[in-house]
Amino acid sequence: MNAVSVLPESSGQAERYERYMEVVRARATSREFDGGYVVPREHYEMIVEAARHAPSGADAQPWHYIVVTDPAHKELLAGHFVRERYRRIELGMKFPSPNYRGMATAPGLIVVVADFRYIKAFPVLGDGSDLDQMYQQNAERILLQSVAASTMAAHLAAAALGYAVWWVTAIGQQEAQQALRPLLDVPEELSPIDIMCFGPPRRHPYKRWKKQLDEIMSWERYDRAKCPTDAQIDEWIEHDRARVMYRDESRTD
Ligand SMILES: Cc1cc2nc3c(=O)[nH]c(=O)nc-3n(C[C@H](O)[C@H](O)[C@H](O)COP(=O)(O)O)c2cc1C
Predict the structure, then answer these.
(1) b/e burial code for range 110-142 (CB count within 10 A of at least 16 → b)
(2) What digits encode the pLDDT tens for the residues 140-199?
(3) Are 73 and 182 in contact (CB under 8 A)?
(4) What is the average pLDDT score of the chain?
(5) pLDDT tens-digit profile of 65-120?
(6) In this structure, which residue's CA is closest to atom 31 in ligand 1?
């Protein structure tokens, strides 16, 4: 029997792809927002509804989304990240840390919570052996990728609603999580791992530098000519990273 195509010409696939890509291309990070704007309640629901449909390892859906609207809580969250930024500077980390003040005025703020207990739902031995460690590490990766897939769906939904977005992972460290848990009443078993801010941006966000399609794609086998050397990566971190994080892709200075 011949395979039946589920996408006949008339299905409008090109148009649908273009509409999708419009959202994908328009998604952009902003770290300052119009603080006076109020996100309608249904927009939070529309955004988390998109997150709900994401794929996940074993379909475990190891995520939860906490909508934070209380300005005092946003202020406390922002304060934590601002302090963390100064600590990184004091520790001599060369990472070009952004100013997290803008988090306090983000009209939309959603905390992404991961449930690492679902690691057990993935292939693990559970006997504490070396082999188990190897499987555990991979299971953790499966869990993190699952939460990222769901978070990305939420970001694209926010972009589709016309908002600028801001993906913050600086919350990752154990210490930060301990500090934030009581504020949001997150149970011990769960980990608030990301914050998603969104809203009308204070200034029009710029399109950041993206690698060209050809640079990130191979056919059939990895094209080794495209594999950067360690020195090239160090050079990129040293000279380009801050530029691509904070400047318009069209600027070359
Ligand atoms: C997994 C992940 C972690 C990120 N963590 C942070 C963060 O902690 N703080 C921050 O200001 N931006 C963070 N970002 C935003 C990136 O800096 C931003 O996406 C990148 O510079 C590209 O810009 P664009 O989103 O406008 O394409 C993160 C993005 C991702 C996907």
Answers:
(1) bbbbbbbebbebbebeeeeeeeeeebbeebeeb
(2) 999 999 999 999 999 999 999 999 999 998 766 677 777 788 999 999 999 999 999 999
(3) no
(4) 89
(5) 999 999 999 999 998 888 877 777 777 777 767 889 999 999 999 999 999 999 98
(6) 167
**Checking phi first, is residue 119 left (phi over 0); if not, alpha (psi -120 to 50) or beta?**
alpha
CA 117 / ligand 1 centre spacing (Å):
26
Which amino acid is present at 143?
L
**18: its two tokens:** 């273009």
Cα 201 to ligand 1 centre (Å)? 15
